[in-house]
Structures are given as C-alpha cells and as structure tokens.
Amino acid sequence: MKQKILTYFILVTACIGLHSCLFQQDDYFDKSSAERAAADVIKCSELLKSSPNGWLLEYYIGSGYAMGGITLLCKFDDKKVTMASTLSTPNVPSGVFIESLYQVVSEQSTMLTFDSYNELIHAFAAPAGSGNDANANMGGDYEFIIMDASDNQITLLGKKYGNTMTMTRMPVTTKWKEYIRGVNEIEENAYLYQFDIMAGGEKIGYLKRDNYTLSFSGKTETSSTTIPFVFTPNGLHFREPVIINGKKMQYFAWDNAFMTFTCTDESAQGVKLVSLYPEGYLYYHDLLGSYKFKCKALTQPESGKKQTFESKEFDITISQNVENKSFNLSGLNVPISITYDRSSGKMIIPVQALGSINGYYGALSFGNGMSYIPYFMSTETGYYFSVVSKTESTSPLTISFKDEGTFSQLTGAEPTALVFQGYTSPAYSQSTLGGWVGWYDDYTIEKQ
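Predicted structure:
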C-alpha cells in the first residue's frame, strides 16, 4: 500500500492540534501551550478509561481505506489496553483477548499510541513485502491523532496512512464475545462477493466485494467508486453515506433466508443488495468424489540418462476435510490439502509442508517445464504461491489450475507443474533440499 504524500501529512498535522479533545479547551485558553497540551492528555486519558465495557473501534486498513474496515474492541486501564478483534490474525484467533501497553501523548497534537506489540493491530503495520518493496505492509496504523472527543465517541486520524476512524463507547450490557460472534456469523453467511443493487424491483447498480470494500458500477453516479464498509452483528454499514441513483444509503440489515442486505436508512428504505453466484459456480459438495489426475510426469532417470516427461493418469480422491472450507486430495505421492473459496466456488492449492515421502520431509510447491521454486522460498521469503481451479468442461467435470499471481509475477512464467519436494530436515532450508520426488506437469483432474 502506498503511503500518503509527506507534504499532505504535514499540512494535516499542522491543523490537527486545533481539534484535539475540543470539548474541554475553553476552560484553559489562558494557560501556556504546554499546560494546555498536558491537560488535554489527562482529559483524553481519563475519557478512554471511563468506559467500563471499553470502546468499539472501526479500524480501517490501507491508504485511502483500500482494504476496508474491521472491528476492534478496546478496554483501557492506567497503562494497558485489552483488545479483541472480529478478524483472525496469523497467531491470534478472532475473539481472543490480548493485552498490550498504550499511551496518550502530546506531540504536534494529542495522540493515542499503542506502543507495545499487539498482533491484533500491529500485524497490519508489520513489513510483509518482498522484492523491490521489502517494507510493504497492509497499511495499518497504530498511532492516532485524537481529532475530536465526546463522552460517547472519539474521532481518530491514523498518523501514517491518514484514515479517519471512530471509537464508540460500548454499552455496559454488550458482551464482547457475543458481539464478535454476531459479526462473524454475518460474514460467514454473506459469503458471496457480488451483489445487484435493487430498488423497487429495478436494478440500479452492481457491487463487487474485495476484502472489506465494495466496488460500484452502474448507470447512475455515486460519491465513490470504491466503498469501504464494516460488518456489524446485524449486517453492515458503509464508512460514510453513499448516493446511488439519488438515494442516500449507509446502513444495511442482513436477511439470511434471501441472502440479501436491506437498507435501513429512511432515505433509501427498501433498497437491497442481492447476493449473486458467479457464473460457473461449483458448490463444495459438487467437488467431492473420484477423479482421474491426467498429467505429464517427469521421470527419475537412470544414471547418465536424460529426464523425460511421460503421459500418465492417477486415480485420486477429493474428500471432505472441513465442510465449505477445505478438502483432502489423496492418490499422489502423499495427501495434500486444498482450500475451498466459498465466495467464488473455486479450489485453491497452496504451497504446503507434507508428510514423509521416501524417507524425506515432504513439501509441495510449483514449477514450469524443467524449473521449479523450492518450498523454502515460501517459508523464508514470504512468497506464498498458490494455484486456483478453472473449469475447463462440465461434462465430464474437468478442472485445471492457474496461478493466483505470485508465481508468474516472480518468474514471468505460469506454474504448470505440481512438484513434490523432499527435504532432509523439517527446517525446510535451502541447505537441506534433497530434490524432487514427484513432478506432474500440464495436469488436469477429470471427475469420474
């Protein structure tokens, strides 16, 4: 994600000092600037601690809200914040409480800073890039300028990426785990990523979801072609109101029976976001069963002889692992895991560590022709390759697998081969790569 231009940031922060905790400034205009700043810090600190059930932070990620919003619940004491998230991070599942340190400080303005590591927020700021931009991250802030504050709401501005966010006082009777469970149930049930916008039985536009944003297209104008949103226990709401076909809308309730979000704003009541299945969608249970795995298998040659590809077929089975989420594929060298993307109806094969293969520690990666990428590149450099299913025929169901983008971006070639690799230790480092033990190029699977 790109950062805000430095000069823009300087202009913003120059103005912000006038707005921090405005609700208290009239009382001490006759004091020095240092005294006013210190008093502002105290007032904002006390406000944060004053909510016995904490605050709901709608946390927007990415420069220009590019990845949309998630919900963080935050409860503050004198030094620590207890936080939980609606989104799982690599090491912390959704709904798990994490403690870390925070401070309210005065720099150019009064700021809230989460100054010890808390994965629920710092994961979005941690470097995750590679190649030309090793410091690239997901565009998350952990330092915030306090723009405005009242008893029930605090407005924050991300210091680095400039996203405006709100913290709202949580009602005392709201249980954190129930709130998070409600949000996650909405997201789980609303698994399709395409919507027709309907008003009075007429289609007035189309939305497509990416992360936590919706891209708008249609004949009418809207205030933004990309709409950041956040899920709630009842549905979702846009970060700010959007006008589509003359109707101003922001808040939507989910109807699970009809797979529809219905607008609850008075100005656009009855407007619906109707879920759409992508063309060629395959349900989870459509993909279970027996297949022929057809490929060109690379032979292990005798000493001094050239490696060659031979056309081969293997009987494989795709069986249930976690319903609507993952499969097991068996019948090749060792079983491998396949992810099911319920939003698109597609299967995804990622690079992965495997069980023992011929005395080696197995791993799966991808190749092209006679070249391949070692699995350890994923574990040590952050290149997480995967391939996505493509339906070539429906009678019989025949599926190929195409690059999701990372492999071809790195190599300039498509990952046409599944490569089972053998390592001499579970460290999967370059020095322990023993070679390949199964190489299957130009492969498809055909349902029997």
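Summary: The chain has a mean pLDDT of 88.
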